[in-house]
Amino acid sequence: MAAAKAGAHDVVTCDLCDKSTKQFCNSCQVSLCETCVEEHRDEFKSLSHEIVNFLERKSQLVFPGCKDHPGQRCEVHCNNCDGPVCVKCILSGPHKGHDVEELIETFERRRQETKRKTAEIKEKILPKCMKEDTDNERAMSRANSQFDDLGKECKSLRQSWHQEVDDIFDKMDFLSKTFKDQNLNRLRAYKNEIQNVMSDINETLETNDKVLQSNKLSDINNYLSNLNKVANLPKNPDITMPHIEAKMNHEKELNLEMGNFKATLTQSSEYSHSTDAPCLTPKTAVLLMDEVKVISTIPTNCDNLCGISCVGEAEGWVFGEHDNNISRIDMQGSVNDTVSTGPRYGPKAISVSNEGKLLYSISEEKLGSVKLVRTGWSEQLIIAPPWWTPEQLCCTRSGDILLNEKLWHWKLGGNIPKDNRIVRYHNKEKSQEINKDRNGVSIFMKGPRSLYMSENNNGDICVSDSNDRSVVVVNQTGRVRFRYDGVPARRKRPFDPRDIVTDAYNQIILTDYSNNCLHILDQNGQFLKCVEGCGLENPKGLSLDRKGRLWVGTKSKSIKIIKYMAPE
To answer: B box-type domain: from which residue to which, for each copy (predicted)?
Structure first.
């Protein structure tokens, strides 16, 4: 039934215009006003129209008109042609002899089929579509989040790669500065020697002139000229100028060399999504001996030998835990020199400068300082700030001093360690403080024990933090590169790191006091080897001599000299 249009106040209007409806065509199921009745009849002249009062209308099916027989309505469905036809089409028309059925039956069958399909759409297809739509929304949200994470990962990797490149060139800048300082120091020393020779020459010339002007035979006969002495000029130092060699394999590998420093930045896969930072690897052949060799065992009088600093290849400065003296001993145990730090206070730590001078840290009353030992006396180089005590120290290749300073909170009944830091001193002035990371978090654990330090050839500062039972390595800017917790060594007791050194291969070596062994790591913190079974009873002090041998101080008052590297 055609729905009549409703106007204001529910007035039913004509289906052909907007006037109020009065009539209804039952045959066509159309609402009509009085004016449109004739128009409706004229439009469908060939069909019969049952026009009644609107209130007497009937709801019935509307049969379509036949295209071939005007005036006839199609009341039959031709199954052969699948279309509505009239009676004349079946009796004498083109559909004669075809399989037919009443159009009402076709309508009802197809109506039921439509209802079934509608129910299927509502009950199955639409819910499935709605579920797919919901799942798709979730997938879009998940994909959006994952691609955001991928973007963040790419950004992080970009920063990581850039940082690695920056680290490489920071190290090269550091080495360049170190080479410059070393060579300029040689030239300055040579200049001083030449000026001393020139001064001696001028004195000799003045003396010779006086002798030549004398008329006394005794002056000439007794005069011994030192011409031969001043004629022997000091040897001009050889200045080594390192050069940079760069090799780039496009999108594969970058190799850089400067002097003995070699670095490689490698891209392992062009499409890799690994979050691992690119690896900086030295190419020097590192040959660790399968079985280390104890070259010598040096007896000392030092209880719990905790401080060793080698001088050359056959001597070292040593002191024990409660000593007020620092002794210079050789490989036979003979004491060749002794430095007294005073009757009341012993040294905290010792180190040897590039010129072979002894330095030691000490706390006297409330004054902490670092002193340089000269012939017969000690010069005060550094005074620690108030409330800070100087602990371990390390002389760098550039001539700087790295000093561990500990802040104590003075309380009745004892002192409580509050903070631990490393300070770099250049020409006696503080030039760098290493204490917190970029997030403001303390790098080192506060506690009663000192931080042992060693500077690597690549400029890294390697720190043994026994309060945290770890080794932390920072670059020359103070950024943490990695930490080592001793787990890869698989020792029985908890990791207990003490003294630490770095060798010519950038390897990191440290004593493990509780496990009676040494740990050897590469420059990136990868565990390489444990040295044990050499009579290392509670090893603490550690140093390297000029031949690359380890001097290890033990609790049993002896020093073990250990060869751990095979010839290349």
So the answer is: 9-54, 66-103
For residues 346 and 323, is the Cβ–Cβ distance under 8 A? yes
Residues 432 and 352 grouped into a single domain: yes
Exposure string over 102-128, b if 16+ CB within 10 A, otherwise e: ebeebeeeeeeeeeeeeeeeeeeeeee
* Distance in Å from the first CA to the final CA of the chain: 104
3-state DSSP of 36-69: HHHHHHHHCCCCCCCEEEHHHCCCCCCCCECCCC
314 and 195 both lie in a single domain = no
Higher pLDDT, 258 or 189: 189
Q: 269 pLDDT band (50/70/90 cuts)?
A: very low
Look up the domain containing 174 and give its range: 110-266
Strand 527-531, strand 542-544: pairing? unpaired
Q: Which residue has the tokens 């997030």?
A: 439
| The one-letter amino acid at 289 | M
Residue 242 has pLDDT above 70, yes or no: yes
Same domain for 205 and 331? no
* Mean pLDDT estimate for the chain: 83
CATH number at residue 330: 2.120.10.30
CA dist 226 to 79, 202, 205, 214, 410, Å? 140, 12, 10, 18, 63
Spatial contact of 496 and 515, defined as CB atoms under 8 Å apart: yes
